[in-house]
Amino acid sequence: MEINLKDLLKKYKSHPYEDHEIKTAHTGIVHLNVEDGQEVSGPTGRWKHRPGTLLYVLEREGNPKRITSMYTGFVTGLRKELDSNFVQAGVPVMVIRHSLNKDEIIDRILREVLYVFPAPQRARYFFTPEVAAAMEKEGANILNIKDGDEIVIMSLMKRDTLLSYLGPPGVLYKVYFRHGDLIEQGAPLLGICSPERLPFVERMIQRIRTEWDD
Amino acid sequence: MKRDKIIIANRGEIAIRIMGACRQLGLDYVVVYTEEDRDSGHVKTAAAEKGNDAVFRIANYKDPNEIFAVADYCGATAVHPGYGFFSEDFRFARRAAIRNRPIAFIGPRWEVIRDLGSKINTKRIAKSLNIPVIPGSDEPIYSEIEAEALAEELFQKQRDDGIRRPSILVKASAGGGGMGIEEVTRLDVFRQVYRRIQNYAKRQFGDEGVLIEQCMKGYHHLEVQLLCSRHKEVVHFGTRNCTIQSTGRQKRIEVAPGFDPEYVAYPFDAYRVLEQIVNYSIRLAREVEYDNVGTWEWIVTRDGRPYLLEVNTRIQVENEVSACISRISKHKRPVNLIREQIRTALGEKLRYSQKHIFFDGTSIELRIVAEDVKRGFAPWCGTITRFEFPEEPWLRVYTHVPRDVAYEIPTEYDPNLALAIVWGQDSEEAKARARQFLSRTIIEGVDSLGQPIVTNLGYLYERVNDILRFV
What is the pLDDT, as a whole number, of residue B1? Predict the structure, then answer.
């Protein structure tokens, strides 16, 4: 598969944003802590251990839950009328317009370069215990995968099914889900890179790092 | 009781049945739903009947904080857990009872749920009362070596008993409803299965304890329906037969009564066995001072020996099949067990005793599921575009699948589509009516690849021939 890196970069440079709708994680009384247009930051620190800007507090059963920003950007579309009111789960509260940085551009372009193994159903996904143990010990990039390998468990309608990988052999270059995540049908699960393509991918990443200004 | 307001902490057809019971009792109610269930019939019915203020979107049915937060916001005084989710969670029932703003839990006292919710503890109590139980572990096993030793012992015992193909069941200790159970027929594959069930149990229930017991073959799965009150009243609503199950031990057809010697000849005194399991169930219920609806599950071997399997301290999917043949005094209408459950949980007396309960005819419940019976009952995902079934005086259908718009089956939950309860004057008539219903039911739909829907209608049509028989 050939890709035109120049065109891809041009596309992202013309619209280097992503809008993230922030919805209430659960029910409770919401107390807003930001204003429209305010700049907010995402988690920082080596391990992203310092939380981002406090967006709102959701109080449920007497327990306040501090909802901090997972993205750096600007607040738009703030719904002030919700302040100090009971809200249901999944209610949109605001949007954060986030400018894509170099690593995020690499991540998005990688999806077009790697062989992406998608989720066959909307379900929860887990690595098999053997694969999870191997990854914990040696890291994901060490795993070589071939057609028919059973590496992922799909938990659907309370039934667990072993999923066989279908696709070209290669190295597990990217994992797009966390253990037990609910993944939409067709969303990427794994990104596989063939051994002969690895040098090209590494060069491409290097080029983006050089050409993209954060 | 009239001033009570119930929060229905469940989904689908059981939420709809609970709404019906509330309606009969003149009680107000609210429902909860998740984003995946936004098109479910239980949401639409509640919104149409009570308005949009009576439906609340929550993050997860399994998050107790969500349920209690909505309960407080809307002023609910009682919570009905339905089946699954919190229905057998004694911690949830305890929290409802002792929180700053207590609300009634529609179910037994939390102490009873705790004591009978554990299959192991139930087994211990039953043994102490001389009630027969299945040979196997008396407590959850966490050690592979210990598990293998017990498995070996159970295989040996069966060989000593002259059983030609011995086998054992490996079960998630915290599981229920047939989930997390596998059969092992050879000791050399035991470890592999044990590890699989242990991992499954950890993922699904947060507890990796495993139970091991002898696998009984060719048995019938019977249930005894009890109703008890807070005033130490105990009555039963007979027995039902739940033997016809999927390969994953999920019930598919249930019949009340549990045996019918006028329909099938049994090599044992079937009336005596039914009486025995009812009496054993009542003995256990009285011992633990049971105080709500409950189901005592039994297996009965080909030679008529009963063994207690477990107690389900909740309303069940199949309660309706017993209710359908039960009459109180001269009432022509079948009893509504959910209505009775709510009344007793809110402290009312039964106002009748066993001598006022009569049984009339045979009832069959058909569980209509989107599943591929030829591929191990694999669940089918997709969108239902047409769902039509006949309307008859001898038939009740409970479904959350809307019939006026296309409905995408949520993948987060079981692909159950509907429950059909058929009544007949006798088993022969009930069976004929069940087949008539199935042949006149139409379900159409497509999956994401454009392939037509797969359901178990054909399977049910065939298997209904096998009801009440030892096949």
Answer: 64
